[in-house]
From TrEMBL:
PROSITE patterns: AA_TRANSFER_CLASS_2
The protein's name: BioF/Kbl family PLP-dependent acyltransferase
Pfam families assigned: Aminotran_1_2
Cofactor list: pyridoxal 5'-phosphate
Matching CDD domains: KBL_like (cd06454)
Enzyme class: transferase
Keywords per UniProt: Acyltransferase, Pyridoxal phosphate, Transferase
GO function terms (MF aspect): acyltransferase activity
Keyword Acyltransferase (UniProt): yes
E.C. numbers: 2.3.1.-
Family of the protein in this entry: Belongs to the class-II pyridoxal-phosphate-dependent aminotransferase family.
Amino acid sequence: MTLTLPERLSRELAGLREQGLLISPRVLETANRARTRVDGRDVVNLASNNYLGFADHPEIKARAAEYLHTWGAGAGAVRTIAGTLTIHEDFERQLAEFKHTGSALVLGSGFTTNQGVLGTLLQPGDLVVSDELNHASIIDGLRLTKATKKIYRHSDPDDLDRVLAENPTDGLKMVVTDGVFSMDGDIAPLGRLIEVARKHGAVTYVDDAHGSGVLGEAGRGTVHHFGFETAEDVIQVGTLSKAWGVVGGYAAGHADLRQLLINRARPYLFSTAHPPAVVGALSAALELVQRDPSFMERLWDNTRFFKAELARLGFDTMGSQTPITPVLFGEPEAAFEASRRLLDEGVFAVGLGFPTVPRGQARIRNIVTAEHTRDDLEHALTAYERVGRALGVIGG
């Protein structure tokens, strides 16, 4: 008998429940800030990607309102028909200047950017070698291509060298890596990776979703942090939704990259352009981070303090090097229970298990922001100490 849709839905949901992996997202009842409200509780928010506190910044909201009133609620079409407004191209020039690249193009989201750029550049006969811990959007983007796909061990230039040497091709060669890995918070060793890629004539493709706005001068990103922002054999992609506090994705690199993507990238060709308010907010965010270095200074001061105190308490933060600070619990049940207890203590921090992270490495991923005060972080640390001792994760 043919399986019905209700049967498929019921079986899949039952399986998730049995494994303890069924997700029911918390709903924020106020703006996404360092302090917010969840389930009727006022909480310290450690679950957001709002690194610089821009999501509810008054200057950014004012620019969004200005563009809304001047340009309307929506763009009205896809970019290639009638949806490209002056402000779209102005922002892309601003972004290219910020990134120190020959061109930049904005797409609907960071996820679809990976699909669009990888799908445009990679063809049959090409070779793409991807870090084993790359983001799901990279994995899905590569699945859509007909290039030969290989994996190298996480952040291991020697293994990358081996894979490239064992897979010769006359087509395009591409090495793909996150700049900052979203679950562990570690930084890709871009200097070594690019050196190996160049040895084999390969292009390096960096998804800088969690590095843009966090690393490099004025938040220019991981590629800038390592000094490769003007290199024509390096492609930068990322999101405009994390440190920048809004939504969207971008691709930046060689001067001709933008024009090819305009003609071939399917998420660009078949998606309505960003609303004017989004463009205004993004433009204001780039201006603000360059004008006022205190945002990044506070972000990193808070990061260093929080990591040091978690380590002092005895928590395993898994070698994180960035504001992404995982606390390892091992099994998903422990991570989810810790998350529930932290919420009772006034701290919003979300547990993550398989398939988001590998089995046996369930964790709570914490992200401190520029907006957190020392009182916020001390409150969170006190809660972590109580919960960690109660669950036997730390001594005492």
